[in-house]
Amino acid sequence: MMNCQRATQLISQAQERPLSLSEKISLKVHLLMCSGCKNFSLQIPFLSQAMKAYAKGMDETSSDDLKK
Amino acid sequence: MRSTHPRDGAESVVTDTAILSDTAFLNDLRQQMLKFATLQLSNSHAAEDAVQEALVGALKNAKSFAGRAALKTWVFAILKNKIADTLRQKQRMVNASSLLHEDEEYEDYSELFDAKGHWQDDERPASWGNPQASLHQHQFWKIFETCLEALPGNQARVFMMKEFVELDMAEICSTVGITTTNLNVMLHRSRVRLRECLENSWFLKGERA
Question: Which residues constitute the domain of residue A13?
């Protein structure tokens, strides 16, 4: 059975490459049973999204910075 | 270029741009760019160079931008390219073996996972609810930055190359001198750390709106 350490590695790698079918299946089954990894799997894509927003020039923060 | 002045040289290009006389805006912008560049280029001179080049490049075309937000988006796009260029040039100077030692061999996962590879009880990721809402909060970005800066140097660098400069995997591997497997490990570790930091410092704090 897949453990959490392995599951988080696959979740991370899914940001870089498409997972194989057997990886997807093992991961999917693990996520059904493990709320921690399920949360992790939602958070890792969010990190990428946040990095992209950050890279865009931090428009959110700058508008605040300018007010001070 | 720190004291770029409207009357210096490029007059014909920039005469009717109000942005150039907005010193407060330019200072803020420069600070943000520098923070950015320094996170990725361990060398502060290289960071300063990249920032100056990007800023000058963008300001030369400042007239074509409707406003500060547009200029800012543009200037960060240029900065990103400069950083990518600098990273590529640095390729030969990186000491790959030291990098692998620091990040691969002397760190283990036992704080996070038990012997069977399952989450330690106090490390299990919690639900973040709707994290997208945080993207609009000033305080979130402060925390985000602090967490990025807390990553070990080499992890931070490859993570930024991948997620911020958006180099592809092969390019990062050849630039840093590591294998794809090594890179996967480093990206995994930096995500685990960044995630944990954001959870502890933000999502579990209950201070967000």
Answer: 4-67
User: Which residues in chain B touch residue A47, judged by CB atoms under 8 angstroms apart?
Assistant: 163, 191, 194-195, 198
Q: Write out the two tokens for B4.
A: 């770029």
Pick one of 1.25.40, 1.10.150, 1.10.1740, 3.30.70 as the CATH number of B11-90.
Answer: 1.10.1740
Query: Cα(B157)–Cα(B67) distance, rounded to whole angstroms?
Result: 32
Question: pTM score, two decimals?
Answer: 0.69
Q: Give the phi and the psi of residue B128 in degrees, each rounded to 5.
A: -100, 5
CA distance linking residue B123 with residue B1, whole number of Å: 47
Asked if B136 contacts A60 with a C-beta cutoff of 8 angstroms, the reply is: yes
Q: What is the ipTM of this complex?
A: 0.84
Residue B155: other Cβ atoms inside 10 A: 23
Question: Which residues are CB-neighbours of B28 under 8 A, at least 6 positions away?
Answer: A62, A65, A66
Q: For B84-143, what is each residue's pLDDT tens digit?
A: 888 777 665 554 544 554 444 445 677 889 988 999 988 999 999 999 999 888 899 889
List residues of A whose CB lies inside 8 A of any B CB.
3-6, 8-9, 12-13, 15-17, 34-37, 39-40, 42-44, 46-62, 64-66
What are the phi and psi torsion angles at B119 (to 5°)? -55, 135
